[in-house]
Please model this.
Amino acid sequence: MSSPETANGRQIKIGDEYFQVLTEESSRVLAHGEPFVIVDVKKEKLVVKEGELFLYSDIEGNVARDDTSGLGLYFQDTRFLSTFDMTLFGSKPVLLSSTADRGFMSQIELTNADFMTVEGMVVPQETINIRRIRVVNGKLYELIRIKNYNHFPVDISLEFEFDSDFADMFEVRGTKRTRYGTRLAPKTTEDSILLAYHGLDAILRKTDIRLETPPTTIDGTSAIYRFQLKPRERRVIKFSVEPILPTTRVPEITDFNKAIGDVRKSYERWFSSSTQLHTDNELFTTLLRSSQRDIRMLATDTEMGYFLSAGVPWFVTPFGRDTIITCLQIMMLDPLPAMDTAKVFTQLQGKTIDPWRDEEPGKIFHEVRRGELANIRAIPHTPYFGSADSTALYLIMLSDIVLWTGDLDFARSMLEPINLALRWIDEYGDPDQDGFVEYETKSRRGLVNQGWKDSGNSVVHTDGRLAEPPIALAEVQAYVYYAKRRISSLFELLGYRERAGEIRAQAEKLKSAYNQAFWMPREGYFALALDGEKNQVKTITSNPAHGLWARIIDEEKAERVRDRLMQPDMFSGWGIRTLSKSSINYNPMSYHNGSVWPHDNAIIIRGLKKYGYNEAAAQVASGLFDAALHYDYYRLPELFCGFTKRSISRPVNYPVACSPQAWAAGSIFMILQALLGIEADAPSSTVYVNCPSLPQWLKEVDVRGMQVGKASLSLKFRRDGDVTSFVVTEKSGTVRTIVTE
Model:
C-alpha cells in the first residue's frame, strides 16, 4: 500500500478496498483548507445525539459548505459530514419551525418562496410543505416529506449536497496542522455516495450515504430528486448516513421507524426507573423534564464503557470533573450513571509518570480523545491528566455511590483505586508537602490552569498579573477535605478504623491550615488561590464558595462568605458571577472572568443550604430558574454572560457555550435536593431531611420512588407561608426518615 505522502494522483489499495486519490492540491482544499477558526457563533443551532454520534446543524437542518461555526456530523472526535445542505429549486426553503427538544430527533417544517417553473407558471409562496424528520441511532436517518397544497401539479427539484473534511475535533476548534492524511475520491452508485479519508494514524474513515429513495441523478457528492407532485400529493424521501471506522459496531437497526422507536423506549425506561419528581409549578416541572432528557441524551455507550459526556458539540467524551460533578448532581435521581462512570474512570486512572500527558500514578484524568490528532500524539489527550481536582471529586463520587446504594461489595472492589487516589493527593498532588494540593503543567501541550476554570487567564492577582505556578486553588483544597472526610467514614464502615482515623485527622489538619492560609480578614472572604510563592491570590471569585459545599469553612467565617457572595458585584440577579464585577479583570462576556455558570451556582446553593442560609440559597436558585425560562426547551446552557439582571430583560448568551451540557443539566437536580434538604445514608437505611425550604414560586414537590439502597421512598413536601414540611407518602423496604437541624 502506498503511503499518504506518496500516493497522490493514482489509485491505492487500503485493506481490501481500492480508492482513487485526489491531487495534493485538491486534498488540502477539500479536506481541510486553512486552519479552522470558529467565528460564526451567533446563529441558532439544532443538536441531535445518541451514543457517540451527533449532528450539529443550523435551524433549517443544514450544514453549509462555507460554515464557520463548527457544524457537522461527528463521531469519535471526527467530523464525518462537513457539508449537508438541502435546496429547493436551487434556493434555500423558507423556515417555518424547527425543534430538537427530544434530544435524539428533530423535526423541521419548511416551505417555498414564490418561484416560477420552467414552463413559466408561478407557484405561490407557502404552497409546498417540506417536513424534515431525522433521528440518530447508530446512523443518521432522515425522512423528508414533500406535499403540494396547490390546485395544480408542480414539478419539484430537491437537491442535496454532501461532503466531509474528516476534520479532527481539535482542528475544528482551531488547532493548526501542517500535515494531513490522504483525502480519497468519492465513490458513487445509483443510490449511494461513499466519502473516505486515510489518516496519518493509518485509519480509514468513511462516510457511507445510503439513499433508500434513489435520486434522479447523482453528480459527484450531490443527489438530485426531480418529480412531479399532483394537487395534494405527497412524496417521501429517505436516506441514512453512517460514519465507519475499522472498530465501528455494525448498527442493528436499518429502519427509520425502528430507529425512533428503540431510542424512545430507552428514554422511557430510564425515566420510569429513576426518581419521579413532580411540582405544583408547571414551568419548573418542565425544566426538570427537559434537564432529565438532556442527561439521557448525553449518556454515551462505548467500548470503554458507559458514561455521561460533558456536552455537545465540543465535549462528547469522558471528561473528568464535568462527568463526576454531573453524577453527584443527579444521585437523588439515579445513582447508576455514577456506578457506570466509576468503572470507566477506574480503568483510566493514572498508572505511570508521563509528563507529556501530565499523568501520575493514582491521578484521575481530565479528558480523553480518540481522533486522528490524539492517535498520532499531536495532542496529549490519550487520556490527558491535567486536572488538579478530578481525583478528589472521584473519591467523593465513590463515597456518594455507597451512601445512595449501600453497596459495600462495590466499595470493597474500589479499595485499591481509592488508596491510589489518596496516595496521589498526598504525594504527587502535594510535591512540597505543605499540605495543599497544587498544580503545574509539565506537558508542552498541557493546560496552564488545571481547576474547573482552566482558561489561561482565570487565576490572576488583583493588579491583573497572572499567578505563577505551582498554584493551590481554594476549591481544590475544599474537595480534598471533603473527599478525606467521606472516605474516612467509608473506611470506618468497612472496618478499617485505624486507617479511617488517620484520614480524618489529615482532613481536620487541612481544614485548619486552609482557614488560616486562605482567609482574607479585610475582605471577609477566602483567596482564590496561593501562588508559587505561597502568596494569596486575593481576587474575589466564586471558587472559594465551593468550600461551603465541602464544609471546610469555619462556622464563624461562613456568614461573611455568604454576605460577600450576595453583594451586587458577585450576584448578578441571574446567578453568582465567576469573578467580582469590581475586579480589574472583570468581563461579563468572558469564559471564566465574570460569566455565570449554572453548575457553579448549584454547588454554592448546596453549600449555602448546608450552613442554614436558606434565604440566600432560595434567592440564587430563583435567579437561575428565571434564567432557564428564557432558553429553548428551558435548557440551561453551560454558561451565560454576567450582565446585571436589572439592566436587561433576559440573560445574555455566551456565544460558544455547550448546549446541552451535562453539569448545567444536572444543576437543577442538585438545587432541588438542596432546597429539600435530602441526604441519603443507605448503609444505615436512613434518609435525613435537613430543614427543607421551598422558595415562593414552589409550593409543593412530590418525590416518588426514590431508591435508597434496596428500599424505595416517596416524600411530599409542602410550603405553608415560610414553613416547609413533608410527609412520607409511600415506603417499600427498610428505610427510616430522620429530620435534622
Remarks:
- The first strand starts at residue 11 and ends at 14.
- The chain has two domains: 11-262, 285-676.
- The first helix runs from residue 24 to 31.
- The domain at 285-676 is CATH 1.50.10.10 (Glycosyltransferase).
